[in-house]
Amino acid sequence: MGHTRGMDKLPLYIDGAFVDSEAGGIAVTDPATQEVLCEVPFASSGEVDRAVQGAQAAFASWRETPLPERARVLLAYQQLLKERQDDLARDLCRETGKTFEDARGEIWRGIEVVEHAAGIASLMMGETAENVARGIDTYSLVQPLGVCVGITPFNFPAMVPLWMFPLAIACGNTFVLKPSEQDPMTPNRLMELLAEAGAPPGVVQVVHGGREQVDALIEHPSVRAVSFVGSVPVARAVYRKAAQHLKRVQALAGAKNHLVIMPDADKEQAIASLVGAVCGAAGQRCMAISATVLVGAAADWLPDIQAAMAAVRPGPWDDAAAGYGPQISRAAKARILGYIDKGKAEGAKCLLDGGQCTVDGYPDGNWVGPTLFADVTPGMSIYTDEIFGPVLVASQVQTLDDAISLINANPFGNGVSLFTSSGGAALPACHRGRPGRHQHPHSGAAAVLLVHRLERLLLRRPARLRQAGRALLHGDQDRHRALVRRWRRRPGQHDDPLAVARSSSRRLPPAASGAAPVRQLASSLSSAAATTVPTLRPCCSTSAPGCGAAPSNRKLRSLRFTSPRCSARATTS
């Protein structure tokens, strides 16, 4: 474990061993203190070639390894990741500045993908068809491509690599990882555990560096596929170069996620979720909410949003009260401060300015406090550009149609969230909203779309809870919230509404039970317990109940690592 500590030069990982690079590099610093943690080398062209050639040589035997044996390596790997989760999180905190709980959440999201990859066998099945023509049958085989390359960003140095290489090697490919040069220590730690899990030498390689190393990997004739996550300019460059060299390529970048608040939404729940989605992970994630659209009378909630954001403060990774950590670098901080200045100059109303934020005991940290702009119009740069920090821009419109039109006119994804108690608002937003790759509105009372199931789930609960369910069904939101609050305060009752829903669902016939309605019921019951000042929980770019990322936005990425003769797809979340 000593490879990534102190001020030593970080090694490359080639053919199952950590190798000292002959090339120079740059310092990796703690963003909260500017302490130099290590030096990351920019691999030479010979070292890049050696890594790819080693992966190509390992492919010959790895592709012939039976699926169950590959799965056993991944099962051992996910177990090691679980056992070392806290150690990995602490190291990740030092180089990214993330809070400890946020870092643990990131590691766990990666573990989930490894678990999925261990079950790859069913996705590797081919297809057959008889008599497609007279006397002719067809069959398809799912085969690995060869050497795949992953280029990953700074904001998730564990999770994004774990999106990529476990699925690639589960399919029988080999992999070369080029992590961000801003926080490369965590990927090296991932390799230590992968070797301990029994992965053969050369199956996964790690080379460090910048643009020159990326270009060398993409241009290498033995590389068959490239996957990239990062900024828009780099994504365009990667996509063009990979396409020019006839590689399979996916390049994921750019986001301006919107959160629409209708005036009938649960106010406390909407504000708590909004602030968590803006400030969590210091706003450095592709599913962060950076724009809110307040419809009609919801515009009157701006002072409450301002107060909730002002209550969140950044801090070092081991401060349990800190809502989030510093920006990754001084350059990132300067970029955000530049956008704050632009917003003021363009005429937006700055209700909360985090540009002068300081943290006691950490004068050199890359701190940016929560920032809120109101009266933002589509022509302003703070609305059109991805800021990638804890900055929220608020726009006011009169109708849901206006909100949908505003969102559809924005060129960026990745998603949009809608807070409302009306299925009549949620369904049109689902159908008409086009915020990029996908959309998934969040309804504070999504259970109105499953009213018969909600009624049955509550039939055998205490009388007050049954009354609350009926109040929700009949649109009486105030009575619903009041009844649920009173029920939750009773001693001896379940604290977790999901536990209540599950205990009731066990009595239902199969058609009426199921995970989706139970989760939606739990979400509606939880709304009454939300507080105006949010508590930020472990977050990542994909959210789930209890995560501070964009509510109910689960990002799906499809990684195609199979041969031209097949159409198998490995999907990660």
Protein traits:
19 strands, five-stranded parallel β-sheet, 19 helices, 39% helix, single chain, alpha/beta, 573 residues
* Count of DSSP strands: 19
First and last CA, distance = 29 Å
Mean pLDDT: 81
Largest beta sheet: what is the strand line-up? 14-15-16-13-12-17
- What's the helix count? 19
Percent range for β-strand residues? 15-25%
- Outline, from the CA principal axes? globular
Poorly predicted runs of 5 or more residues: 1-6, 437-466, 468-474, 490-573
Structural class: alpha/beta
Radius of gyration: 25 Å
Any overview of this molecule?
It is a single chain. The chain has 573 residues and is an alpha/beta fold. Helix content is 39%, strand content 16%. It has 19 helices and 19 strands. The strands form 6 sheets. The protein has a 6-stranded mixed β-sheet with strand order 14-15-16-13-12-17, with helices on both faces. Helix 5 links the parallel strand 7 and strand 8. Helix 2 (67-83) crosses helix 6 (185-196), helix 3 (85-96) crosses helix 4 and helix 16 (463-473) packs antiparallel against helix 17. The radius of gyration is 25 Å and the shape is globular. The two termini are 29 Å apart.
Topology of this structure?
Layout (H helix, E strand, L loop, with lengths): L11 E3 L2 E3 L5 E5 L6 E6 L3 H18 L4 H17 L1 H12 L3 H19 L9 E6 L2 E4 L7 E5 L7 H12 L3 E5 L6 H12 L7 E3 L4 H9 L3 E8 L1 H13 L3 E6 L3 E5 L5 H13 L9 E7 L6 H9 L19 H16 L3 E4 L18 E4 L6 H4 L6 E7 L2 H9 L7 E4 L3 H10 L18 H7 L5 H11 L3 H12 L8 H9 L9 H12 L30 E3 L10 E3 L1
Parallel strand pairs: 7-8, 7-10, 8-9, 10-11, 12-13, 12-17, 13-16, 15-16
Antiparallel strand pairs: 1-2, 3-4, 5-6, 14-15, 18-19
